[in-house]
Amino acid sequence: SRSLGKYPQVSNMGGGTTVFVGNIPYDTTEDQLKEIFGQVGNVTSIRLVYDRSTGKPQGYGFCEFEDPEMAASALRNLNGADIQGRKLRLDLADNDT
Fold first, then answer.
1. Nearest 5°: CA angle at 40, between 34 and 43?
2. Using one digit for the tens of pLDDT, what is the confidence trace for 24-82?
3. How does DSSP assign 47-82, residue by residue?
4. CA angle 34-58-79, nearest 5°?
5. CA 22, 55, 41, 70 torsion: positive or negative?
6. Is 7 exposed, middle or buried, given 0-12, 13-18 or 19+ CB atoms closer than 10 A?
7. How far apart are CA 74 and CA 27, in angstroms?
8. 8 Å CB contact between 14 and 93
9. I want to staple 84 with a disulfide (CB 3.0 to 4.6 A). Which of 10, 25, 42, 73 is the partner?
10. 13 pLDDT exceeds 60?
11. Residue 45 and residue 12 in contact, taking contact as beta carbons nearer than 8 Å
């Protein structure tokens, strides 16, 4: 079974903790992203998305923060940030699963 981390799932009335990150350079690692996003708050997980058939990165992923305020800070401070010549695109991920 898959662990959802140490925090229980709660309904957070519009205060999402997971940020969608698009336009990630293909050679960027999860550790590099964790270092970048860690500048704005406590990161609980980073997940890059890979093509199932080739194993190559798709150029997007998700970053989960400890609380909604940190996720909002990431949106304010890192949306459009230049990483290796590419501007990151950030948005709150849909937490209604």
1. 40
2. 999 999 999 999 999 999 999 999 999 999 999 999 999 999 999 999 999 999 999 99
3. EEEE-TTT--EEEEEEEEESSHHHHHHHHHHHTT-E
4. 50
5. positive
6. exposed
7. 21
8. no
9. 25
10. no
11. no
Q: CA 87, CA 2: separation in Å to the nearest integer?
A: 32
Residue whose pair of structure tokens reads 């937490």 in the numeric block: 95
Tokens of 46: 């980073």
Query: Minimal CA–CA distance to 7: which of 73, 65, 47, 61?
Result: 65
Q: Is the separation of the CB atoms in 33 and 49 below 8 Å?
A: no
Write down the number of H helices and E strands in the chain.
2, 6
77 backbone φψ class: left, alpha, beta (φ>0; ψ -120 to 50): alpha
Cα–Cα separations (whole angstroms), residue 43 to 13, 14, 50 = 21, 19, 20
